[in-house]
Design goal:
Largest sheet: 9 strands, mixed
CATH architecture of the largest domain: 3-Layer(aba) Sandwich
Strand order of the largest sheet: 3-4-2-5-1-6-7-8-13
Organism: Gymnodinialimonas ceratoperidinii
Radius of gyration: 20 Å
InterPro entries: LpxK
Pathway: Glycolipid biosynthesis; lipid IV(A) biosynthesis; lipid IV(A) from (3R)-3-hydroxytetradecanoyl-[acyl-carrier-protein] and UDP-N-acetyl-alpha-D-glucosamine: step 6/6
Strand content: 15-25%
Keywords: ATP-binding, Kinase, Lipid A biosynthesis, Lipid biosynthesis, Lipid metabolism, Nucleotide-binding, Transferase
Number of domains: 2
Distance between the termini: 43 Å
Protein name: Tetraacyldisaccharide 4'-kinase
Structural class: alpha/beta
Helix content: 25-40%
Length: about 325
Amino acid sequence: MRAPGFWHEPAGLLSSILSPLGALYAAGTARRLASGARESVGVPVICIGNINAGGTGKTPTAIAVAQKVAARGVVVHAVTRGYGGALEGPVRVDERGHSAREVGDEALLLAAFLPTWVAKDRVAGAKAAVAAGAQCLILDDGFQNPGLAHDLSVVVVDAWRGFGNGRVIPAGPLREPVDVGLSRADLLLSIGPAPAQTRFEKAWGDRLAVPHMRGALAPLPTGLPLDGLPVLAFAGIGHPEKFFQTLRDMGANLLATHALADHQPLSDALMTRLLREAGQRGAQVVTTEKDAVRLAPEFRQQVMTVPVRLEAEDWTPLERELDRIMARL
């Protein structure tokens, strides 16, 4: 499902009508988080989470943080719920043997960079990873999950969208109020280009009582020049327009864009239709890494993938936190 448009507009009549339901949702989150002591598994746990529902850039952030940890000579594994996948776990993801239907697209993407475990029960997944030799865990999502103790919590937010209208589901895009969520965070990372960062800080800067990092998702070379290339682009991520703008910035000639729902299955019928349209327009079909792992094998060779990596203005706040939590190893 796509987020309602009013979530990212100034609070109006509809969000006001739904605010009592938002208060109930927030109360439910608070009760769940207060339900008992979180369990420790004996190694540092770094939670990459968000306050918003939907995509904010958690997976690229998890990959970047894992690489920072691995550069210290620490064996790091990821634990994720496997959103969209059928397997309960704990199961270690085999990027060649598992499908997105089994483990979810985010888990497959993570598994290309570090050992990754899918587990609906995060504690069980963490214990399985530690038993397999993990010295540090990256918890992809799970900021509102009460089971596993966190040694470092990084909240990620899309700088363009910020915290939307500032209200809780269904009145707005938030899983919990901003101030409540940030009170448990160690770092806040806003992701977006300079204009987006300026917009975010103007809207929310006076409420950020937590160290704030700024980053952006930078495309990697694809091997096929995009400058002037006729392109039909599709994306089933939290904010597809970000990807389409990245392609424009790379010089692509976007003849058509298709914004899909986050994690939307890429059925044979859908892909056949998109490839037919691209053929009629003389365009190359292009998508994101996260979408590409959901493609059936027969379509992968026909679709170009543009990978992105997180770049931060200054990694110092994260490095300081890693120094703190790694001191006990």
